[in-house]
């Protein structure tokens, strides 16, 4: 093979690697529902999935993007509209710098929690999802003036948030909401269902996560890290081996 062909091949591989690194996305998916804020709502009917992924340097300005994919799995005669998504953020960036850059419904408004006042009288204002705690980000899918009331039953849609910088990871958005009383249950996210049968509405928390690092809610058990599981298995096997040696 000639040196020119080898160089061209190397350049092509480098280009493909660069593209892969630029658009690499980390993700986790939450499955709803586990808890509903309205005691009269049938939580088993309030079904949805929410996937969050960070696309590295994928924004028009080279910033990271948060990809929010939502599927409304309710269906007639028990159809609901999804009108809001509540998200957490625990990284070091200022969430007020995040901007909504792709909105398939045309009525979305992004609101971030903020701190007002000065020490020692600072107050943090955060979006509140019923009894499910306080969140850092609220994506209102039906804020006026709106083109839609939200995501209808059976629909799927994806929103993109420009994070204003790079260096973000999926787990930056995977912690539990802040609770301020023992009666509140925190969630890795929350959804607001509206326009249900008889005009019902409710906030709902996820019950499952496809990533063991992300607890869907504060009631769910903590799943040990894979390395912890390996250490536990290794310890058990080591103990069994020593017992066999002692008996032998």
**Apparent shape:** globular
The average pLDDT is 79
Return Rg in Å: 23 Å
Strand content: 25-35%
- Largest β-sheet summary: 10 strands, antiparallel
Based on DSSP secondary structure assignment, what is the total number of beta strands?
A: 12
Percent helix: 10-25%
Q: Largest sheet, order of strands side by side?
A: 5-10-3-2-1-12-11-4-9-6
Task: Please tally the helical runs, counting DSSP H or I stretches of 4 or more residues.
Answer: 2
> How many domains make up the coordinates?
1
Listing every helix as H and every strand as E from the N terminus to the C terminus, the arrangement reads HEEEEEEEEEEEEH
Distance N terminus to C terminus?
63 Å
Structural class by sheet pairing and helices:
alpha+beta
Q: Flag low-confidence runs.
A: 3-22, 227-247
């Amino acid at each position: 093979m000639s040196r020119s062909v080898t160089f061209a091949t190397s350049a092509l591989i480098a280009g493909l690697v660069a593209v892969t690194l630029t658009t690499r996305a980390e993700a986790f998916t939450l499955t709803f529902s586990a808890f509903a804020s309205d005691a009269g709502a049938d939580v088993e009917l309030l079904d949805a999935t929410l996937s969050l992924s960070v696309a590295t340097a994928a924004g028009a300005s080279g910033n990271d993007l948060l990809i929010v994919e939502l599927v409304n799995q309710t269906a007639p005669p028990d159809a609901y509209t999804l009108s809001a998504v509540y998200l957490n953020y625990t990284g070091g960036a200022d969430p007020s710098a995040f901007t909504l850059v792709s909105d398939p419904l045309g009525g979305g408004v992004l609101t971030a929690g903020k701190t007002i006042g000065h020490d020692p009288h600072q107050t943090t204002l955060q979006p509140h999802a019923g009894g499910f705690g306080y969140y850092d980000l609220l994506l209102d899918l039906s804020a006026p003036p709106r083109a839609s009331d939200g995501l209808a039953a059976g629909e799927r849609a994806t929103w993109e948030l420009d994070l204003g910088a790079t260096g973000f990871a999926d787990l930056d958005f995977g912690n539990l909401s802040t609770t301020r009383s023992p009666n509140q249950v925190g969630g890795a996210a929350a959804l607001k269902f509206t326009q249900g049968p008889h005009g019902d509405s409710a906030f709902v928390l996820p019950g499952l996560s496809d990533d063991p690092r992300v607890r869907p809610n504060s009631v769910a058990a903590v799943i040990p890290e894979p390395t912890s599981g390996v250490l536990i298995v290794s310890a058990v096997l080591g103990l069994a081996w020593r017992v066999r040696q002692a008996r032998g």
